[in-house]
Design a protein that fits this description.
This protein has eleven helices and 14 strands. The protein has 410 residues and is of the alpha+beta class.
Length: 410
């Protein structure tokens, strides 16, 4: 180690006292320099990552004294906490909440165009859209210094069970051909129309970085509000399955703003429903929300119960599946008579081959298509489980032709 000695401006004599004084000044100078060099060696040691600290713990304790030992220990503990927090964001289950932990003022803007095939409910914070239809969303965040690249990770998850992976149904998956370029994209229910999009995850993934998601690099040069220093970019997405394909479970769309290291610095969540009639479903859900609010304010009176008309609401809760089941909400004589009359009008019977025949009349075309899609889903599942049964394959083909004919009805 090189030790610089302080310059002496007085005359050095040959006297013993002067020699002793010069020696003392040299020793003091060397001690001060050693302390400075030791503190200089501590700074790079403190800046080392947590992994290096774990492999060489004794190498970073050299040169420490009682004054800076406590500071070094505190910085190490804080660094370890930060590393654990980063890993927890990446490897844990998603949490359906909005936050801006990175200070980017991250937000999503949806401008619903007139006469569109998708609608957004501000009251419910919910998007209603048809399958294979594109919707635009603007990503907005505040530019921070120093500028670093940011990515947007988007994925679907079940609202009531965030651990369950959202997978495509076999019916729609089978009609999309498999190539070497679309292996990841084919399995993803969410599609991005933006260039440079990367499809991530596996069918077994549960963590944020492990489940099916779309990663989109953001363009830092596109400014939305230059005076406020905000960046705004338009992204386009679509869905290739409906909520009816995945058991009619409620789903949420999660937008995660990530930096280059994969740390989540902002998150926005909205509910989404992929259906055949977005306007009808949005109005129905908003009416139910308003009804719940009125009931929570005051008790329901007899007049209010008459206005609700439970008989009509019961008819809307009929679910069409392979085995048609009527869900009764109440048991009264008038309801039983209506149900028996409607069942006889539907002409349910059996054939000589032991199969079942059903002729139904639906007041709306959408309900008819939903009933056919439910039977197609069950038939496709049966074909996949028993590929050698030709009768199941013929039945599935007939249902596909039936759906095509029904969709062409006025």
């Amino acid at each position: 180690m090189y030790i610089s000695q302080p310059m002496s401006w007085h005359k050095i004599s040959t006297d013993s006292e002067d020699d002793i004084q010069v020696a003392n000044e040299a020793s003091l100078g060397s001690a001060d320099s050693a302390v400075e060099d030791a503190s200089a060696d501590i700074e790079p040691a403190v800046a080392v990552t947590g992994s290096e600290l774990a492999t060489e713990p004794m190498a970073f304790l050299q040169g420490l004294n009682s004054e800076n030992l406590m500071q070094f220990s505190q910085q190490s503990v804080l660094r370890e906490m930060m590393l654990q927090d980063i890993q927890s964001h990446v490897n844990t289950l998603p949490k359906l909440e909005n936050h801006n932990v990175g200070g980017y003022n991250f937000s999503m803007v949806l401008d619903e165009p007139p006469k569109s095939h998708w609608m957004f409910s501000v009251k419910l914070n919910k998007l209603y859209i048809r399958m294979n239809k594109t919707f635009n969303v603007d990503v907005q965040f505040k530019a921070k210094m120093p500028i670093q690249p940011l990515n947007l990770r988007v994925f679907l998850c079940f609202t009531k069970d965030v651990s369950g992976p959202v997978l495509r149904c076999q019916n729609h998956l089978s009609v999309e051909p498999l190539t070497a370029q679309n292996v990841k994209m084919r399995e993803s229910l969410l599609r991005s129309e933006n260039p440079n999009s990367v499809y991530c995850g596996t069918a077994q993934g549960k963590g944020i970085s492990e489940r099916y998601s779309v990663l989109i690099p953001l363009n830092m040069c596109r400014s939305g509000n230059r005076s406020a220093g905000h960046v705004r970019q338009t992204l386009a997405f679509k869905f290739v399955c409906q909520n009816s394909c995945i058991g009619r479970k409620e789903t949420s769309l999660v937008f995660c703003l990530e930096n280059a290291g994969g740390d989540i610095v902002g998150q926005q969540v909205m509910d989404v429903k992929v259906c055949t009639c977005p306007k009808r479903d949005r109005n129905q859900d908003e009416r139910q929300l308003n009804g719940k609010k009125r009931k929570s304010i005051a008790d329901v009176t007899d007049d209010d119960e008459q206005d609700i008309k439970p008989s009509k609401m019961r008819r809307r809760t009929v679910s069409y599946k392979k085995d048609i089941k009527m869900e009764e909400t109440e048991s009264n004589d008038s309801h039983d008579r209506d149900t028996s009359e409607s069942i006889t009008d539907w002409n349910v019977s059996t054939t000589k081959d032991g199969e079942y025949r059903l002729a139904i009349t639906c007041p709306k075309k959408e309900w008819l298509l939903q009933a056919i899609e439910g039977m197609i889903k069950e038939a496709a599942t049966g074909v996949l489980r028993n590929p050698n049964q030709e009768n199941l394959r013929r039945h599935a083909n007939k249902l596909m032709a039936l759906k095509k004919c029904a969709s062409e009805l006025p």
